[in-house]
Structures are given as C-alpha cells and as structure tokens.
Amino acid sequence: QVQLVESGGGLVQAGGSLRLSCAASEHTFTFSAMGWFRQAPGKEREFVSFIRVSGGSTVYAGSVKGRFTISRDNAKNTVYLQMNSLKSEDTAIYYCAAARRDYSGSSAYLTSYGYDYWGQGTQVTVSS
C-alpha cells in the first residue's frame, strides 16, 4: 500500500508563510498527479492545488492563486506547498493526495474522487 506523510504545518500570523511537505512511500513517477486539499472546521474538503508528476504543470484554486505554489522533487518522492501571504481563511487541515490513474485534462484532479491515496493531514492555523 501507498503511504503519504504530510509535515510542515503549524501556527503562523496573518501575512506569514509556511511550507508543507508530502513524502510518498513510492516513487512519485508511479502517480499521474499529486495534489493538496484542505478542510476547515464545519466545511467540506476543498481542492487547493495539484501538479502533474511528469510534466510539472499546475492548477490552483482561485482562493489561493498568486499566494500558494505547488512543486515537486521527484528524486525525493516529495511534493511541496509553499504558502505565502496567509490569511485566517486558510486555517484548515491540509491533506496530500496522489492519483494513480492518468486522466486527460484537469477536471478529475479538482475533486477528491480523482485521487487514490491520502495522507493523514497536517494542521495549519493562521492567527489575525
């Protein structure tokens, strides 16, 4: 089975930055894409960003575009989420996900159901 382990969460003031990491137990080349989702208290899990493992193309949710950057280091089997200019609205548990199936386009990767494996999550809290 595949294991994904998130790290890097914590408490930060509004306007600050954090970098999340997601380490995979398999080579990232076994996945078509890896993504980040988040879930705030009382809300459903929502898409944040994904990256194509092979080509490196990226997609961002409108709420984080221009502030967050997703990247990957395939040699380290790791995906990152650099979060800048953090807002209180970014407070949530952040989850890493990996997709085995190679979908055309982006639509499948914008939903939780497009992914096969999930990490346990890391808490991000932004104070104001």
Notes on the protein architecture:
Strand 5 and strand 6 form a beta hairpin. The protein is mostly beta strands and 128 residues long. The strands form two sheets. Strands 2, 4, 5, 6, 9, 10 and 11 form a seven-stranded mixed sheet that branches. The relative contact order is 0.31. It has no helices and eleven strands.
Q: Element order, helices and strands?
A: EEEEEEEEEEE
Q: Given the helix and strand composition, which structural class is it?
A: mainly beta
Percent helix range: under 10%
What percent strand? over 45%
Write the layout of secondary structure elements.
Layout lengths: L3 E4 L2 E4 L4 E7 L8 E7 L6 E7 L5 E3 L7 E6 L4 E6 L8 E8 L17 E2 L3 E6 L1
Parallel strand pairs: 2-11
Antiparallel strand pairs: 1-3, 3-8, 4-5, 4-9, 5-6, 7-8, 9-10, 9-11
